[in-house]
Amino acid sequence: MFHSDHLGVSSNHNALADHCSPLLPSSAKDLYGSEQVGARVLTEAELGINPGGSNNPNDNGDPLPGVLEHPGSVQWYYLEWDGAYLIGFDQASYDLGYEVQVYSADNLSRPVKAYGAREYEQVVGTRPPVTVYGKKYVVQGGPFYIKVYHPTHQHLDLPGNASGSYVLGIDALGCTDKYNDACPIFPNMNYAFEMPSGTFDSSPEKDSMYFDLAVERPTKPAEQRVVFDVFNYPANTLESALVYNDPTTDIVRTNGGIPLEMAGVTNQGTSSAACNCSLSIDTDVPSPVDPSQRMVWRVRRGHGTGAVTFTVVWSTELTVAFGGGIWDELDQMNLVCSETTSDSGNHDEIDTEVWVDGIHMSGGPGNAHRHDVGRFGDGEHRSMDQINAWLRSPWRFKSEVRWRRHETDTGGSSNQVDFEVGTIDIFETGPFSAAVKDFVDVYFDDGHYSTEVASNHGLQSYSAP
To answer: In CATH, what number is assigned to the domain containing residue 354?
Structure first.
């Protein structure tokens, strides 16, 4: 028996207005007779990047004024280049409650989540300069669309907003400091960057690029192994170090008195071409006190003055199992009954419990270990989201997550079945949306149930300290 994974959709109908459709201008002209109806195509200069799509650390882009002409209007922008961006509004638009959503061009149903809950500020433009307040986004596999909207359709009635005007700011992050301009990177994903030629301003160290990452706390507090790799760069050009978060000075982190830094590692002499060199820092970090621990990774020019392209990836041994409803890219987790057991009448009574690295999880009503999922008949399903939340999902583990399902017979006896979610290899990389999904069949005698479990190396967003 198969169960539909189709979700309900909503549509928004409104009067034609400038940039009200995500269509590219040429397609909008064919459909509506006007290119102006299509998405506004962003230029490299407006984003503060060099020709060809690389970071320009000395340019923070331009303010982008727009107007939502009608109640409920939206405007769309087309972003061609992968990268890390700060996207937000000027003070007036921010105070009025304007919002953005970012979408991959191949998925306009689910927006890309911002990197963390923290909001940053950045100055864009020079005539005059405008301070933008917003969040960071890491976008890979573009192109992308940015939707500007107001959550209240009556936005034109807000004091001081009769025109529906706003000012949007989009800054391609240059990774030139430890905070506003630091580039966020998710675990176990390869990111390509370019260090510009010549000397460039960065803080607190010159000629340095800074990366913002979050080490998540295991459900069972424990140290975890993390590895930081720089590769695909010309030999003898780069240095790598983990530094403390103090924005005024660079002090290299240590582990057991050993500095967490690497420089000058090559195996192809002094070739100026990209080699199979690697700067690798392999260490253990204590269990964070907070849900996640912010760390800063610095890649600095070691020798030379030319532009340097390189790839970075940080890897963690931690695996995160999602119970559903946690991350937009993962469907709600359901327990599905294909066929009830023959000895239980028309319905089965199912309950569940969970162990994470040996810890018997508890929570919810009565702080219980074991929770009732519900009564099941053939073809019925129940959401596991609430129960998993009680049992502190998502589970971050180093060894295994073990689920136990109980089926209680009419006479009071109980059958139970265990299944396990194993770890993902520390060096397995790939698109962050490519979570490992397992379809698990559970059999109680002649009864048949199934569920879906997803796991990855971390959450896509976190509450950045």
So the answer is: 2.60.40
Task: For 306-334, give the DSSP string.
Answer: S-EEEEEEEEES-EEEE-SSSSTTSPPPE
pLDDT digits (tens, 9 = 90+) for 274-324: 555 678 999 999 988 777 788 999 999 988 888 899 999 999 999 888 765
The dihedrals phi and psi of 32, each to the nearest 5 degrees, come to -110, -10
Q: Which domain, by its residues, includes 437? A: 319-456
The total number of structural domains in the chain stands at: 3
The whole-model pTM stands at 0.86
Q: Domain ends where: 287, 316, 345?
A: 316
Q: What is the pLDDT of residues 78-125, one digit of tens each?
A: 999 988 999 999 999 999 999 999 998 888 877 888 887 778 888 887
Same domain flag for 262 and 306: yes
Strand partners for 41: 78
**pLDDT tens digits, residue range 240-250?**
999 999 999 99
- Cβ-based burial of 64 (10 A; exposed 0-12, middle 13-18, buried ≥19): buried
What number of residues does the chain have?
465
Burial class (CB in 10 A: 0-12, 13-18, 19+), 188: buried
19 located within any domain: no
